Amino acid sequence: MVGSPLVVLLIEDDAGYAKFVEEVISDVKLFSLKLFLAGDFKEGFDRLSKERIDVILLDLNLPDSSGLDTFTNLKDLFPDIPIVIISSIEDEDLAYRAVSEGAQDYIFKTEMVPAILARTLRYAVERKHFQEKLRESEERVRAQYKNIPIPTFTLKSEDGDFVLIDFNDAAPKIAGEEITGLLGKRAGRLLQDEPEILRDIGKCFKNKASVKREYLYKFRTIGLTKYLSATYSYVPPDLVIVHAEDITDRKIAEERLKKSRIELELRVKERTIQLVKVNVELKKEISERKKAEDALRRLSITDSLTNLYNQRHFHKNLEIEITRAKRMLYPLVVLLFDLDDFKEYNDTYGHLAGDSVLKSVGSIMRRSIRNGVDTAYRFGGDEFAVILPHTKEGDAMNMANRISEEVVNSIEDIGISVGIASLDNLETVEDFINTADRDMYSQKRARKKKMKQS
């Protein structure tokens, strides 16, 4: 093994067996091992407190600690170090219980030979490393879930019903702060007056497919009736994720538009014979109707806070641009921006200040792009995107740097990261997003690493 040896701590009160293990370790040829010995729990604790230990070989029955408590106490004190149980045949059940509690492996004392020991130690360290990476990944996913700007709820299938097990930070916007008291409650009881919603949840789970629906729903927790647009997504093996968007304002606008259309048609019929006389007024009414329709269309594709295009319009436009760029053989680049530590900024200065930052970034985006060629979007939360047709990657990076510099120089306590994706070898909208996202988070990690080193 190239590099530093794997450092092993053996906690074993039998001096003869400890000597035997030392001899076995000296015979391991696959990689270099360094062994420390401890005769009881206290001595092992002292050694772990002073030395860098890569893996622990632990006998569960020590003079000052015995049984499963020996392992659990040591794991609680040093959770980042993998532990392998050394056990007699008679204690196999106890060793197996330790593994179920988090030990990486166990090895019988009678089977302690170089090949088995080397394999066990190596796998223990690798499994522990994998578990840490998995935990970090789960924490990142959890943070992303909590920060989704759309109210989101997680339901778990249980005994023919669905139980509310989680919700994100945006959920109280439509369900009220009392939603915390609903955790663990069954959907069948919470939604007993909403059979259509229950059917859609069940349909999503049964068919393992997304379901989208609009409802007029009365929230008992806040005593309000709202229009909701709900999207149900199946997550194996037993979860349904619900994104519930308040579309009350949009529905009211649609109803007003519908009412205006009906009234206009009636007036047209009634006044046909007076067409010449009322022509000027009629044109005015038609113009107002057109403005209302245009306003509704703009509302559907525009982010109300920044006045940039929204994420839905980004997906539609990027798909069109990809098809056009491939057909006409010109370069296409997408930039994806993310504000650094924006949540901490919100927590420190408040959401009004955070909204002001988002508006300022939107203004910078608008004046930085080519009018009539490039398009800027609020991608969601504190993320922004720019689509750059007829642009080479180097020129796109120059624009990204200009935008980043202006954001950092004009907005105090705010940083920004950028990811880039170009048409080369990319086929779909998702390819562009995933490539730019990976590039952006790679830069974030590199910057944080550099800050820690400095």
TrEMBL record:
Keywords: Coiled coil, Phosphoprotein
One record GO biological process: phosphorelay signal transduction system
GO function terms (MF aspect): diguanylate cyclase activity
Name the UniProt record assigns to this protein: Diguanylate cyclase
Organism from which the protein derives: Candidatus Zymogenus saltonus
Transmembrane segments: none
Keyword Cell cycle set for record: no
Pfam families membership: GGDEF, Response_reg
Modification type 4-aspartylphosphate: residues: 59
GGDEF domain mapped to chain residues: 330-454
Limits of the Response regulatory domain: 7-124
